Amino acid sequence: MNRENTTSVPQSDVGLSPSDVTEFEAEFDARLATDRKVEPRDWMPEKYRKTMIRQIAQHAHSEIIGQQPEGNWISRAPTLKRKAILMAKVQDEAGHGLYLYSAAETLGVSRDELMDMLHTGRQKYSSIFNYPTLSWADMGAVGWLVDGAAITNQVMLTRTSYGPYARAMIRICKEESFHQRQGYEIMLTLCNGTEAQQAMAQDSLDRWWWPSLAMFGPPDAESTHTAQSVAWKIKRETNDELRQKFVDMTVPQAELLGLTIPDPDLMWDEEAGHYRFGQIDWDDFWQVVKGDGPCNRERIAHKVKAWDDGAWVREAALSHAARTAGVTSRVSPEAKLAGGSAA
Ligand code: FAQ
Fold first, then answer.
1. For residue 146, what are the CA distances in angstroms to 69, 149, 154, 290, 328?
2. Residue 192 · residue 202 · CB < 8 Å
3. Per-residue DSSP letters for 96-160?
4. Atom 37 in ligand 1: which residue has the minimum CA distance?
5. In whole angstroms, what is the distance from residue 65 CA to residue 200 CA?
6. Helix (DSSP H) and strand (DSSP E) numbers for the chain
7. What is the pLDDT of residues 264-299, one digit of tens each?
8. In the structure, what pLDDT confidence band is assigned to residue 19 with cuts at 50, 70 and 90?
9. DSSP string covering 323-339
10. Mapping DSSP to helix (H, G, I), strand (E, B) and coil, where does residue 277 land?
11. Ligand 1 center from residue 77 Cα (angstroms)
12. What is the Å distance from ligand 1's center to 115 Cα?
């Protein structure tokens, strides 16, 4: 059996004999057992490849769509400094989307296919970005809670088994950590402000708390992919474990702000060393995931419009690249060194 993969696309079990698959599978399992990363040119089970494409694409789409709720406030930021910070944050999210699309492409799917799947609803993005940002305090709550939830989930992904995804997450986590702090700092400023500003911060927490908890995905008992993804070391912690970690971390932060978490069942369980919290509205979550949240249609329509409006840029870039490639091939190395142009 030839183990060397000389193509640029990943190996999978498509087209291999059953005995080859068994041997490759044993190697793949050994790789996971010894915590070595799976790299694009390594053999991987077709289901692993599909799961990775699904998760990385969903993650990338979330970063891209996630620019919209905050982009909404760039022109209305209260000071020039806040505006500059918010613009930089939104640009960071675009960058995260691009690293992640590149990571997904190493699995043999093209950027155009990924865009098409997002635009036609065949791939998802995070439920959280289907809620509206109604006040400036929402910029604080999104940074504090949404980036806070994102980073809780993403720190474990720096140890995920697929190499390109794990490496992308290292830089993304550093940036998300800054985002979380800038959000918390907005909340802190409002909470140290007037009564009206404090009320604005509380209202924002009231609206973002539950959707942020739901963002971690369905309870483990109802999660379609968790068991297999944990076995493949894609997920290093489960949805419920991460949600609990987030609650334990965030409740004291809310106390420091003087804000009340909108959950009458929230209580500290001394014996367990964790906060106990109330029921998440899973009907609302599934409604949003299935496309029927407050902003789903608006978010996708805006994204499709931006994609269509940008068609001329993509065409111009491709045409320029083709022309430059032609020019380069006609210029001799000597002429290039002498600063010459094409004949
Ligand atoms: N929204 O079996 P599981 C950010 C779906 S980045 C929508 O538990 P899994 C940065 C799931 O796809 C935020 N759908 O799934 C930022 C599956 O559907 P399927 C994004 C959800 O994959 C901040 C079904 O439910 N982060 O915020 C959601 O094992 C501020 C069953 O669920 C990532 O994507 C949801 N919340 O675990 C940007 C991190 N949850 O395929 C701008 C990477 C679940 O069966 C501003 N992703 N579903 O039809 C992950 O870690 C995982 O994919 C989970 C879900 C944990 C999200």
1. 11, 5, 12, 20, 47
2. no
3. HHHHHHHHHHTTT--HHHHHHHHHTTSS---GGGGS---STHHHHHIIIIIIHHHHHHHHHHTT-
4. 217
5. 25
6. 15, 2
7. 999 999 999 999 999 999 999 999 999 999 999 999
8. confident
9. HHHHHHHHS-HHHHHTT
10. coil
11. 29
12. 17
Nearest to 215 by CA among 179, 239, 184: 239
**Continuous segment of H or E residues that includes residue 3:** none
Residue 205 is predicted with a pLDDT of 98
CA–CA separation, 275 and 188 (whole Å): 23
**Ligand 1, pocket residues at CB < 6 Å:** 54-55, 58-59, 62-63, 66, 93, 124, 126-127, 142, 146-147, 150, 153, 215-218, 223-226, 229, 239, 289
What whole-number percentage of the chain has pLDDT above 90? 87
What DSSP character marks residue 220? G
Give the pLDDT mean for 13-28. Answer: 81
Which of 129, 133, 223, 246 for mutating ligand 1's site (highest number of atoms within 8 Å of CB)? 223
Amino acid identity, position 339: G
In this structure, the residue with its CA closest to atom 32 of ligand 1 is 223
Tell me which residue of 126, 142, 143, 149 sits closest to 55, measured CA to CA: 126
Residue 144 pLDDT: 98
Residue with tokens 């794990």: 166
